[in-house]
Amino acid sequence: MRQCIFCMQWKEEKEFNREHIILEALGGKGDKDICLNVCTTCNSSLGTRVDASLLNQDITKYMRYKFKIKGKNGVPNPFRGVEIKYADTPIIGELKVNKEGKIDGFRAKYQELEYNGKKLIVGPKKGFAQYVNSRLIANGMDSLTEKYILENKFEFGKPKNPHIEYVEFPEEIKEQYLIYAFPAMVKMAYEYCFVMLGEKYLKDCIAVDIRNFLMKYDYKKDAEYYSPTRVSMEWINEENREISLKIQVDNNSIWVRIVLWGMVLADICMSEEAFEYKVTEDNFLCIET
Question: Mean pLDDT for the chain?
Fold first, then answer.
């Protein structure tokens, strides 16, 4: 039997799996990155409600794309829903990214526009003639034969896919990111403290508050929330491939410092009873994504 550190229930060994402290979808790996006391039920629920609050943010998707960090569905496409123009044309669409994290195409929106003094109808490859006629009729014009449409159809040649070196995110997106990133980061810190400080930590007053917060939080419903502990978060803009956690003691408080990709730094207070624990020198967890 083993006790889950979230629901606090004792369960059979088969009801637990190897939980990555640094989320697997962020590149979590290695034996030092494992917490064995999270039951499969809580693991699944926390993944949907808490981890997703960080993973579904555009900045996270972009960093995973940049460093080619694969999840269950491969590398995410951070450009989905972002409209750009195709090369030097007025055609609007979005970039396609394959599971390896490589830009491999452009998906144009179905649209009508002026191009080189003519009306251009952009439509699907399959059923293109039918689509063109539907637009002509919708604009009060006569339909054309499929043969005529296909003879006047033209391609733009070899796709021109850009290579993205850097993306600048607006300040409001960064501020929103800190709000949605915190629940997943405090979950990582909670698991790390349990591994490093032992079972006694589960009874710590702040640990109880954090646990209760995580068991209720749902990023799809809780756009606003009260932090269960003291926290400081900031952008440091020293971009690299690392994600790290480190326990630090300040007076009688235990803090976990988390750094995401050299971009976001969070100091999270995990206990105000440092005298109750033995904090070792070897408490630095770091992975290179």
Answer: 91
CA distance 177 to 190: 20
Enter the pTM of the model. Answer: 0.85
Cβ neighbourhood burial of 122 (10 Å; 0-12, 13-18, 19+):
buried
Local structure of 287: helix, strand or coil = strand
Report the alpha-carbon distance of residue 76 to residue 63 in Å, rounded.
Answer: 10
> Quick one: how many helices (H) and strands (E) in the chain?
7, 14
Note the pLDDT tens digit of each residue in 180-235.
999 999 999 999 999 999 999 999 999 999 999 999 999 999 888 999 999 999 99
The amino acid present at 255, given as its one-letter code, is W
165-178: b or e for each residue (b if 16 or more CB lie within 10 Å)?
eeeeeeeeeeebbb
